[in-house]
Design a protein that fits this description.
heterodimer; A: alpha/beta; Quinone Oxidoreductase, Chain A, domain 1; 2 domains; 7-stranded mixed β-sheet; 19 strands; 30% helix; 28% strand; globular; B: alpha/beta; Spore Coat Polysaccharide Biosynthesis Protein SpsA, Chain A; two-stranded antiparallel sheet; 9 strands
């Protein structure tokens, strides 16, 4: 069957690639339903990646946050009509030690391989997770939630047991979602958020305190921290975390930066800090994310950061939704009707 | 119920590249009509899918279904008629013989040689047929359309922004299509080029679903070469 793949060929320019899907292969055929935009997609769309990276990775279909409906499954794993979320992380082997999202050879759909902007998506059954009882526009950001689930798991495995207080640097979608996940997974731990934008910080009504990055009290201390800034903000966030964190704290780095970031290694050594890089997620994280998203309170909170755009029915609509995303403070979600 | 109707009654005299009707030629590694059928079968809105095939090619079509789809009870092959509309009415006869008549039954007719149809077009056709009774798929005209009666001189140049190029699917409430066709005179029937014209002749509004330029009809050797190039296949002369 001929399938339409909507590829970004150069910044702000999309073209269609036609591929032939083999319906007799052991792959689940899914019709994308709702999609969410990520900063990574936006950076490709705007051409804000290094020109060498753009030349290497484009043309490529964007989007790695997506839910859909199973249309056909020759493997018999899913019923026709089952609502599912799709895992963009694609390992090539089972590794009992290394998480699938870091293992050598693992690739990622929408980074060097076509993402989910397609008429149909075909995936092996282990890259598909069923959901029930989650509104589709919220299910669209499951991958995003799973990334924060994964970070919280990495933290849980690496951090010492003093967990009276955790601080999150960042006030965007990632920080907000992570805060929700941490609140549920570590309910006894006090949670603080450090940000720059009062409007965004006001959404964090469920945490124990918020601070402006330029006005942090000198007596502010915490046991562990998550950095969710990325970009130019990474340097200042990491520097402040090192300054205020208690000795032997665990710092999870989640923000992506195009440029190398200078770090105060002297104080890292002096305090005996541990830095953990956390990126993307795997099947176990998706399953946990779906479990969390099926709870009413979590859905209501996550719903606050979702902005549902008009349905996408043409390439013109794709370009419009990327433009709209630049004006929304949190996550842009849209129905995929291509 | 909603029925797909893939029209494959032609024998492909315009291709001159094969003694096989064009819908049975390979695109990539499978016949064009199998691509079209697979796209229709993935649409969960269809209850059954019919294929109208020239009587000489019925066995071949059934063999292709067995080879590429396997055993399935939702696909039916019937003999086509002498022209497009008679093939559609052969399919309707079989639908009503097997599933009875119902005012809400929808038929989505589609050229077998348009394998680049998308799910959006199919779904919008079904939705609009339920709402309006008659639907065509068309794209805005890109080239200026000129009208000529003798093929030598232009009679008129209609405003391009009001011109569209018709594609398929074309979809109807079966009861409406039958009623309108039954009201046509012999002379009116002789003017029909497609099923939507049945509605136009009888002043029945036909809703337009937006098509795609890529939804090409593979009719000539050039079309076939373009389609091969679109799917990255090897050019076949």
């Amino acid at each position: 069957m001929i399938n339409y793949v909507y590829q970004l060929v150069s910044p702000k320019v999309f073209s269609v690639k036609y591929t032939d899907i083999d319906l007799n292969a052991d792959r689940v055929i899914i019709r994308p339903n709702y999609m969410a935009l990520c900063h990574a997609d936006q950076r490709y769309f705007l051409g804000q990646r290094d020109i060498k990276v753009l030349n290497k990775k484009l043309p490529m279909a964007l989007i790695h946050e997506c839910c859909g409906i199973v249309e056909y499954d020759p493997t018999g794993t899913f019923e026709k009509g089952q609502k599912v979320v799709m895992i963009p992380n694609t390992p090539i082997r089972k590794n009992p030690v290394i998480f699938e999202n870091y293992d050598k050879g693992t690739y990622f759909l929408s980074s060097g391989h076509d993402g989910f902007m397609r008429e149909f998506v075909d995936l092996p059954p282990d890259r598909v997770v069923a959901y029930n009882g989650v509104p589709d526009e919220i299910a669209a950001i499951t991958e995003f939630v799973s990334v924060t689930v994964h970070a919280s798991t990495r933290f849980d495995l690496a951090a010492h047991e003093n967990r009276d207080a955790i601080a999150i640097w960042g006030d965007g979608s990632l920080a907000y979602t992570l805060a929700n996940v941490l609140k549920l997974r570590f309910p006894k731990t006090k949670l603080y958020v450090v940000g720059m934008d009062s409007r965004k910080l006001s959404h964090f009504s469920f945490v124990d305190g918020t601070y402006f990055a330029n006005n942090i009290p000198e007596d502010f201390h915490f046991d562990h921290a998550f950095e969710c800034c990325g970009g130019e903000g990474s340097f200042y966030a990491i520097d402040d975390i090192i300054k205020y964190i208690n000795p032997q704290g665990n710092v999870v780095l989640m923000g992506v930066s195009e440029n190398k970031v200078a770090i105060n290694t002297r104080d890292i050594l002096e305090k005996g800090l541990t830095f953990v890089g956390s990126s993307r997620s795997g099947r176990a994280d998706f399953e946990k994310a779906v479990e969390l998203m099926e709870t009413d309170a979590f859905q209501k909170r996550i719903n606050k950061i979702i902005s549902v755009d008009t349905p996408v029915k043409s390439i013109k609509d794709i370009i419009k939704v990327f433009g709209d995303d630049l004006t929304t403070p949190f996550k842009t979600v849209f129905k995929w009707d291509m | 119920m909603v029925f797909g109707a893939i029209l494959a009654g032609g024998v492909g005299s315009r291709m001159n590249i094969s003694d096989m009707p064009k819908q049975f030629l390979n695109l990539g590694d499978k016949p064009i009509i199998v691509h079209t059928l697979e796209k229709f079968r993935l649409c969960t809105r269809f209850d059954h899918i019919y294929i109208g095939v020239h009587p000489d090619w019925l066995t071949h079509m059934n063999d292709l279904i067995k080879k590429y789809i396997g055993e399935c009870d939702d696909v039916h092959v019937v003999a086509g008629g002498s022209d497009r509309n008679s093939t559609i009415f052969n399919i309707i006869d079989d639908i009503e013989k097997n599933f009875g008549e119902n005012d809400d039954n929808i038929i989505v007719t589609h050229d077998s040689v348009r394998p680049f149809v998308t799910q959006r077009m199919i779904i919008e056709n079904i939705d609009a047929a339920e709402k309006y009774g008659a639907v065509d798929t068309a794209t805005s005209a890109i080239d200026t359309i000129v009208e000529s009666e003798d093929g030598e001189f232009i009679k008129a140049i209609p405003p391009r922004d009001k011109m569209y190029q018709g594609q398929t699917p074309q979809s109807f409430k079966i009861s409406l299509l039958k009623k309108l066709y039954g009201e046509l005179t012999k002379e009116e029937k002789a003017t029909l080029t497609d099923a939507c014209k049945i509605c136009i002749v009888k002043n029945q509004p036909v809703y337009i679903v937006e098509g795609e330029i890529s939804n090409i009809k593979i009719t000539t050797v050039s079309d076939y070469k373009i389609a091969q190039a679109m799917v990255g296949g090897v050019k076949i002369d």
